[in-house]
């Protein structure tokens, strides 16, 4: 048996889906010794529904952005980790947040992940110390035990940041917003449509959450204005849901829109404007910077180029998240074990340069996600994702845009050989 001292000590920050995936793969390999820190008292991260908003019992901001009626906007079948396919989601293909949380709990139990997680423990400070004689990096991690307020300093060889990116709301600057007398909230604090019965609500943003929450609200609200600057949605929408242009300015209850029109007598302004990447525990010497949601310098969107013994799992957006987490985690472990070799720093920095027209879209992969995942599998020497993930995602994308009201109820069928997928509404 290997000397305990020779094990690679890895710190995992967060026990949501990405953190659990990291723990599962680290714990399954005797070369690693893993400790995961989770500031809440349970696994699941953003998938843990909490009716509370604001602060939790420890005085920390509520992490979860789940709302009561949320169902996945991806078919459950293609949300599975490839090594634990137990969410079937045949019909309806999209499942409730509770079903996803149950899946994550089953996953953690199946791979005995929980024994490596320290709950109610907040990571306060992570800093790079040095590289030792064997060229192994050293990191210090200061944590606070929330139940006792004790702090503890631990040392690790590698850091896997898995703290998610759906907890720090992005609030745009809008002229005149302070004159609005009604309720202003971000989708992060939205829970139930009943709270908005009979109200006129303006939802800003037509990404996934803006559309889904707008539809959810339409069951109770008098009227929902979906305000955005994207191309008009062509799908049928609820009768009391009206698409309008983006907001230019606000004067009391009148909203001036970017096409010169106005909407009046608004009661509630709901911002579905996304989130900011935030790593408050990383010391400056870690070398990570965030500028308008462009996180740098990262190789392949997740490996810290300054100190490649640190990675941040799950930054790319418009992807299949859980399968991508597994690809990233496996690649990082291959790097730590010297089974995969990183290119020169110059090549990695070139890979990290901004390829999108706007910084906030730097990590938007969309159809590039398949080449991305394959590149990790090839370089790391592990299996690519089965074909049904890409086929299912493509079929789903078509159905969703055509039928926003009913696509979640579709039937998701994968052929026996896994080479074709059918989505039937």
Outline the structure in words.
With 425 residues, this protein is of the alpha/beta class. Helices cover 21% and strands 23% of the residues. It contains seven helices and 22 strands. The strands form seven sheets. It has a five-stranded parallel beta sheet with strand order 3-2-1-7-20, with helices on one face. Strands 8-15-9-10-11 form a five-stranded parallel beta sheet, covered by helices on one side. Strands 4-5-6 form a three-stranded antiparallel beta sheet, with no helix packed on it. The radius of gyration is 22 Å and the shape is globular. The protein starts with 7 loop residues before the first strand and ends with a strand.
List the keywords.
425 residues; five-stranded parallel β-sheet; 23% strand
Summarize this, please?
The protein is α/β, with parallel strands linked by helices. 21% of the residues lie in helices and 23% in strands. The mean pLDDT is 95.
- Portion of residues in beta strands equals 15-25%
Name the helicity range. 10-25%
Helix/strand-derived category reads alpha/beta
Global outline: globular
Query: What is the first-to-last residue Cα distance?
Result: 55 Å
Q: Kindly state the number of beta strands.
A: 22
């Amino acid at each position: 048996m290997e000397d305990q001292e020779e094990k690679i000590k890895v710190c995992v920050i967060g026990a949501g889906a990405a953190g659990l995936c990291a723990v599962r793969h680290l714990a399954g390999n005797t070369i690693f010794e893993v400790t995961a820190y989770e500031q809440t008292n349970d696994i699941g991260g953003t998938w843990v529904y909490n009716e509370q908003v604001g602060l939790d019992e420890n005085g920390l901001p509520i992490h979860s952005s789940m709302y009561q009626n949320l169902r996945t906007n991806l078919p459950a079948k293609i949300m599975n980790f490839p090594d634990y396919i137990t969410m079937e989601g045949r019909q309806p293909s999209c499942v409730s947040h509770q079903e996803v949380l149950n899946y994550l709990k089953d996953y953690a139990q199946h791979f005995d992940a929980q024994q490596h997680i320290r709950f109610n423990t907040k990571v306060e400070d992570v800093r790079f110390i040095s590289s030792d004689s064997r060229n192994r990096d050293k990191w210090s991690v200061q944590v606070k035990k929330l139940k006792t307020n004790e702090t503890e300093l631990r040392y690790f060889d590698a850091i896997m940041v898995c703290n998610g990116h759906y907890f720090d709301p992005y609030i745009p600057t809008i002229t005149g917003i302070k004159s609005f007398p009604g309720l202003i909230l971000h989708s992060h604090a939205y829970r139930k449509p009943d709270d908005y019965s009979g109200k006129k609500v303006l939802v800003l943003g037509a990404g996934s959450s803006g559309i889904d929450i707008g539809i959810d609200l339409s069951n109770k609200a008098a009227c929902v204005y979906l305000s955005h600057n994207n191309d008009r949605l062509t799908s049928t929408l609820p009768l009391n849901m009206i698409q309008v242009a983006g907001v230019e300015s606000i004067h009391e209850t009148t909203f001036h829109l970017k096409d010169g029109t106005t909407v009046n007598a608004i009661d509630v302004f709901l911002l579905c404007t996304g989130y900011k990447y935030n790593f408050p525990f990383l010391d400056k010497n870690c070398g990570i910077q965030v500028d308008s949601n462009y996180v740098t310098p990262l190789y392949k969107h997740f490996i810290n180029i300054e100190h490649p013994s640190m990675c941040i799992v799950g930054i790319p957006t418009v992807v299949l998240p859980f399968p991508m987490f597994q690809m990233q985690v496996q690649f990082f472990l291959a790097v730590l074990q010297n089974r995969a070799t990183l290119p020169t720093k110059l090549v990695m920095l070139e890979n990290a340069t901004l390829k999108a027209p706007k910084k906030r879209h730097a990590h938007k992969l969309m159809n590039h996600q398949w080449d991305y995942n394959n590149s990790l599998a090839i370089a790391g020497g592990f299996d690519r994702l089965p074909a049904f993930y890409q086929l299912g995602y493509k079929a789903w994308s078509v159905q969703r845009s055509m039928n926003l009201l009913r696509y979640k109820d579709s039937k998701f069928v994968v052929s026996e050989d896994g080479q074709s997928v059918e989505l039937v509404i």
